[in-house]
Amino acid sequence: MKIKTIYIDDEDEELRKYQRIFENDVRAKNQFEIIAANSQKQIGDLINEVKNEKPELILVDLDLTIPKEGLLLGVSGAALSTALREEFPEVPIILFTKTDFLKIQKVNPKVLSSLDETIYKSDLFKGDANLDCLDKLANGYKQLRNEKSKTWIELLEIIEAPKNDYDSLKVSDPPTISENVWSVFDAAYWIRNTLIKYPGILYDPIHSAAFLGLSRDAFLSESVQKLFSEAKYSKIFVPIEGRWWKSRLQEIAESIMDEKEKDLIIREGFPLAWDRINKTNIDRSKCVFCGKEPAEWVCHILKKPVMIKCSLRYKPDSRPSVMDEARVSYNAIRTSNEVNDEKFDPIEYDMLPNIRKK
User: Fold this and answer.
1) Residue where one domain finishes, among candidates 176, 195, 214
2) What's this model's pTM, rounded to 2 decimal places?
3) Which Gene3D superfamilies does the protein's record reference (predicted)?
4) Long-range pairs for 181-187 at CB < 8 Å and ≥24 separation?
5) Boundaries of domain holding 167
6) Is a pLDDT exceeding 70 seen at residue 75?
7) CA neighbor of 203 nearest in space, from 271, 275, 297, 302
8) Is residue 141 in some structural domain?
C-alpha cells in the first residue's frame, strides 16, 4: 500500500514538478502517493486541508514567504513546521527544500527539532538513501502509532532490545512516560536521534568493526556478517548502512573465543579466535594516525579507527553519558575544517598547539 504523502510548497510549478518526479520514478511511484498542497492561504485553512487528507508523511518547503503579485503569504515555512508538529505529533514531517544549508542553520533550533529530517530537493533521487529514509520514517511512525498500550516495556519490545541493555536504555534519555505512556513523536525522536545516532548501545559499521578489532571491510565481509547476523538491529528506523547491538556483538564474539583469548579485550581476542578457527589472518583495525593495530576508538570527525593516545576527548553534542565519548584524532586536528577547538576537553585543550605544530 502506498504511503499517503502531503507535499506543501508555495509555488504551483514546484508542486507540479515534484509530483511528476515522484510519479515517474520507478521506485517512488510504487511507494508514495503524492498530494500537492499550496501554502498560499491562512495557516488554519492549510492545517484543515492537511487534516482532511489524513497523511502518513508530510513534506514541507522552508521558503514560503516570497511575496507573489504584491501579496504577503499567510504562513512562513518555520511557523508552518511548528504548527504542523503540534497538529500531527504522530506523523513524520520532513523539511523538503532547495534552501542552502547555511540558511537552514539560522532557523530557530526549536523549529528544526520539531522536524524529523531535512532532505534537499536536488538530492532526492541521488541513490536510494533518501527514498529509503522517507519509507522507513513513514512505516516506523505507523508501527509506533499502532501500538495500543505504549508502555516502556512495549517500546523495548518494538526495537527488540536485548534484556542485557535494559538498564543502559533507561539512562539513555528515553521518552518521558506520562502515566506510563510515551508519545509517538518522542519515541521516534529518541530511537533516531539518540539510540541510532550515538554509538554506545548500537554501533554503526565502523564502530562495530573497531569494537571487534577488525577493519571496516573485514567486518562487512559475508563470512563475518553471517557470524554476527543475530547482533544486527533490524527494527524501525534502521539506517541503510545498518546498526548492531554492542552487547550481542560481544556475546557472539566471546562464544568462539577460548580461555586465553577471553583473557584479552574483545578487539584483541576476537581476531585471534577468528584466525585460529578459519586458518586465516583477518584484517585488523588500524590507527589512522600511527598505524598501530588494533585501533581502540573511532575518530569523531574522520570516522576512522584511532588509538586513544593519538586522539583527544571531544564534546560535540549532548549525548547521554551511557554512550561512548567522542574523540578526535590528531589527523583531524591538523587537517579538518570541521574541528571546533571550543569542544575539546579543557584539560587537554593546551595540547592543541603542539599537535598542530608537529
Assistant:
1) 195
2) 0.91
3) 3.40.50.2300
4) 181/149, 181/150, 181/151, 182/150, 182/151, 182/152, 182/155, 183/89, 183/90, 184/89, 184/90, 184/141, 184/144, 184/145, 185/85, 185/89, 185/90, 187/144, 187/150, 187/155
5) 147-195
6) no
7) 297
8) no
